[in-house]
TrEMBL record:
<dbReference type="GO" id="GO:0046872">
    <property type="term" value="F:metal ion binding"/>
</dbReference>
<dbReference type="Pfam" id="PF00884">
    <property type="entry name" value="Sulfatase"/>
</dbReference>
<keyword id="KW-0479">Metal-binding</keyword>
<dbReference type="InterPro" id="IPR024607">
    <property type="entry name" value="Sulfatase_CS"/>
</dbReference>
<keyword id="KW-0732">Signal</keyword>
<protein>
    <submittedName>
        <fullName>Arylsulfatase</fullName>
        <ecNumber>3.1.6.1</ecNumber>
    </submittedName>
</protein>
<comment type="similarity">
    <text>Belongs to the sulfatase family.</text>
</comment>
<dbReference type="InterPro" id="IPR017850">
    <property type="entry name" value="Alkaline_phosphatase_core_sf"/>
</dbReference>
<dbReference type="GO" id="GO:0004065">
    <property type="term" value="F:arylsulfatase activity"/>
</dbReference>
<feature type="domain" description="Sulfatase N-terminal">
    <location>
        <begin position="67"/>
        <end position="483"/>
    </location>
</feature>
<feature type="signal peptide">
    <location>
        <begin position="1"/>
        <end position="26"/>
    </location>
</feature>
<keyword id="KW-0106">Calcium</keyword>
<dbReference type="InterPro" id="IPR000917">
    <property type="entry name" value="Sulfatase_N"/>
</dbReference>
<dbReference type="InterPro" id="IPR050738">
    <property type="entry name" value="Sulfatase"/>
</dbReference>
<keyword id="KW-0378">Hydrolase</keyword>
Length: 783
């Protein structure tokens, strides 16, 4: 007995020695390896010594008083939009952060949404993490496959391993399109990216009144009202949930700091906001976009957020002068800007509620607040004339002015998926050239950003003008918390962090820039910053669905000395051709280094490239159960394809109305349903035209096979089709779809079986319009 006990004690001592070495390994490897047991194990509990497991908190790892983190990311927001950076829209919450800390006026993004978000979370360039473009336009090359690799773990994953509670509210556009359905896989959803809780939407944008809500991995319908009883709005709902989570976190586990990532769908289209907010801006933009830019430019200089010698860049020739427009167009466009301003102000107000909550909890002093006013420049995707329905832009379908005039009094409401004209986006990006999508110029990539952390940043209300990029956020947070980026995460060797910490500039306004080189590329638009100079080449016009072909290897490069020319107003390419060549060569070197190649200038055409994984490719028959919801990325592609929709139902003697199959809703889509006892096929051409085919008589009762046969005129975009309706193989109705949706049916709504979620396909029924009979299954057969 004595020898056995002694042998056990020797083994324990050896394990204890090994544990000391595991601590060093833990700094490079996450999760850290299990250490040896430090207690004593005898033959029974009486001669043994237990060790109480430790809570996973930063203090467990030797980090004392770790700060909370709140990152606010506004969508599609220009440098000259927020009042904090000279815009005409009051943004007191952003003011509050800036006045309580710092504002950065040379902070940059990637020019497009999900690429910026991937770069933010990983601390690596967007192409380095497979996000050179939105995932829906991925092309199967390493820099463009839409997949954040396991070798580029997020800083949220790192923080979680150190005991942080991480919660994400709002937009998650970093899930590959083909992985967004109920079958996942979920390793690249919010949980797989390092978050304990998610509440928001998965995709590029969503309806603010009828959002495609997801809680963790479950799709759900929004409540009827916000928590205070006011009519539902997504941004308010997100704030309600974030506030509840922060309070609960500190109530339950005050030892654990929180990291809240608040990524609104605002101010991306659709521009939807309560009417009382719109009323605050009535008449304020009647002077138009040219006047807005001039007045904003003056405010920016007065506030000191741009240098006194900065120049205002001129309006592009392709954008109309405000005074050249007819009165009815000016009326529509001014109203669209009023709605957008209200949307911006409302969003900032909700952010203010988060700040109030943190303050009330006594946590504001030790909370790092990073408020990013944009993931790219303001969006010109509304085209030259603005949109009542954003889906018209993505499908290259023109909207008549009459649609806009008819919608004048209801813009911003649930009736519309509206977007303002490109010239307003240009104005929001004052004083820079261009807009979202254009990575070559600061109108697409420079965003206002403010940071406050009273306990860690001594300065108050100061400006910082060091050149930085969104990839610099992750290393900044890790440095100030005191965490080393792991060499290995979840068993996978990690790519080096490509960002540089910004902490050196927190208390030194004159600190020398540590980011000396940064490439930019998006949709073929190319740029490179190096030591105060920048070369820029524009491939296409962002307010057009496609642009003329151009040689991406021989672009018309411009040259700017941005150290002295804040707004990229003075092109020096002709004066310094040798500098242009030097920087262009460096651009291609950086492009090769960070997986930017091959360059690709296609836009909507890339949405149809078949180089992405598919759950439906190669299949011709799809049989779905009742009450199934599928995002478009996981649904069969029926656009300009001959197909039939077959529903096996039982209709009781008194009849049964309701939805059998639908994809999309109020802003574009099609569906097969029973209304007033008749079978109806309805096709909504993104609100511009509608085609309704219904049976001549009421349907029989009992077991019935209902069918719609869609025979396309041609397998090509916009093709029309003949539609024939059947009941038990007997033709009961026939009609035409004269023009069809070519590119994308919907951005956020789902394919629904047996009911209709989101918005209704037609407004003469209310969602969910569940089928009242028995629906056995729905089968889609592709010809």
């Amino acid at each position: 007995m004595h020898r056995a006990t002694h042998r056990l004690q020797l083994l324990i001592a050896a394990g204890t020695a090994a544990f000391a070495g595991s601590i060093a390994l833990a700094q490079q490897m996450l999760p850290p390896p299990d250490g040896a047991f430090e207690g004593k194990i005898g033959l029974t509990y009486k001669d043994s010594e237990p060790v109480k497991p430790k809570l996973k908190t930063p203090e467990t790892f030797g980090i004392k008083d770790a700060p909370n983190i709140l990152i606010v990311l506004i969508d599609d927001c220009g440098f000259g939009q927020m009042g904090t950076f000279g815009g005409a829209i009051p943004t007191p919450a952003l003011d509050r952060v800036a006045n309580n800390g710092l504002r950065f006026n040379r902070f940059h993004t990637t020019a497009l949404c999900s690429p910026t978000r991937a770069a933010l979370l990983t601390g690596r360039n967007h192409h380095s993490v497979g996000s050179g473009v939105i995932g829906e336009a991925g092309t199967g090359f390493p820099g463009y496959d839409g997949i954040i690799p396991a070798s580029a773990g997020t800083f949220a994953e790192v923080l979680r391993e150190y005991g942080y509670m991480n919660a994400w509210f709002g937009k998650n556009h970093n899930v590959p399109d083909w992985e967004t359905s109920i079958v996942g896989p979920f390793d690249r959803w919010a949980d797989g990216l390092g978050f304990d809780y998610f509440y928001g939407f998965v995709g590029g944008d969503t309806d603010q009144y009828s959002p495609a809500l997801v809680e963790n991995k479950k799709r759900l319908e929004p409540p009827a009202t916000n928590e205070d009883g006011s009519p539902y709005h997504l941004t308010t709902d997100l704030a309600d949930h974030a506030i509840r989570m922060m309070r609960a976190s500190k109530a339950v586990a005050p030892q654990r700091p929180f990291f809240v990532y608040f990524a609104t769908g605002a101010t991306h289209a659709p521009h939807q906001v309560p009417e009382e907010w719109i009323a605050k801006f009535k008449g304020k933009f009647d002077g138009g976009w040219d006047k807005y830019r001039e007045e904003t430019f003056a405010r920016q200089k007065k506030q000191g957020v741009i240098p006194s010698d900065a120049k205002l860049t001129p309006r592009p020739d392709s954008l109309p002068a405000w005074d050249s427009l007819p009165a009815d167009q000016r009326q529509v466009y001014a109203r669209m800007m009023e709605v957008f301003a209200a949307f911006t102000a409302h969003t900032d107000h909700e952010v203010g509620r988060l700040l109030d909550t943190i303050d009330e909890m006594g946590e504001l002093d030790n909370t790092i607040v990073i408020y990013m006013a944009g993931d790219n420049g303001s969006s010109a995707e509304g085209g030259l004339e603005g949109l009542v329905n954003e889906m018209t832009f993505f499908n290259a379908i023109a909207e008549p002015l009459e649609m806009k005039l008819d919608s004048l009094d209801s813009l911003g409401s649930a009736k519309h998926y509206n977007h303002f004209p490109a010239a307003w986006a240009w104005a929001m990006d004052t004083p820079f050239q261009w807009t979202k999508q254009i990575a070559s110029h600061f109108g697409g990539t420079r965003n206002g950003m403010a940071i406050s952390w009273p306990k860690g940043i001594k300065a108050r209300g100061e400006l910082r003008d060091q050149f930085h990029h969104v990839i610099d956020i992750a290393p900044t947070l890790l440095e100030v918390i005191g965490i080393e980026a792991p060499a290995e995460l979840n068993g996978v060797a990690q790519k080096p962090i490509e960002g540089v910490s910004m902490a050196y500039a927190f208390d030194d306004a004159d600190a020398e820039d540590r980011r000396t080189t940064q490439y930019f590329e998006m949709l073929g638009n190319q740029g490179l910053y190096h030591d105060g100079w920048m070369v820029s080449a524009v491939r296409g016009i962002p307010w057009e669905s496609e642009s003329p072909p151009i040689d991406l290897l021989d672009m018309p490069w411009e040259l700017y000395h941005v150290e002295e020319d804040f707004a990229q107003a003075n092109d020096l390419a002709k004066q310094h051709p040798e500098k242009v060549q030097e920087l262009v060569k460096l651009f291609f070197a950086e492009a090769a280094k960070y997986q930017v190649l091959p360059l690709d200038g296609r836009k909507t055409e890339r949405l149809n490239v078949e180089n992405r994984p598919s759950l439906t490719q190669g299949r011709t028959t799809f049989t779905y159960p009742n009450h199934l919801r599928l995002p478009e990325g996981a649904a069969p592609d029926l656009k300009h394809k001959s197909h039939e929709i077959v529903a096996e139902v039982n209709i009781p003697d008194h009849g049964a109305d309701g939805m059998l199959f639908t994809q999309g809703g109020r802003f574009g889509g099609f569906g097969l349903f029973v209304k007033d006892g008749k079978l109806v096929y309805h096709y909504n051409l993104v609100g511009v035209d509608r085609y309704n085919i219904e049976s001549e008589n009421k349907l029989p009762t009992g077991d019935v096979v209902l069918k719609a046969v869609y025979k396309t005129d041609a397998d090509k975009p916009f093709a029309g089709a003949e539609v024939t309706l059947y009941a038990n193989d007997k033709a009961i109705g026939k009609g035409r779809v004269e023009k069809s949706i070519p590119n994308r049916v919907t951005l956020d709504e789902t394919l629904d079986i047996g009911f209709d979620t989101g918005t209704p396909l037609v407004d003469d029924y209310e969602v969910p319009f569940a089928f009242e009979g028995k629906l056995k299954s729905v089968t889609v057969n592709l010809e």
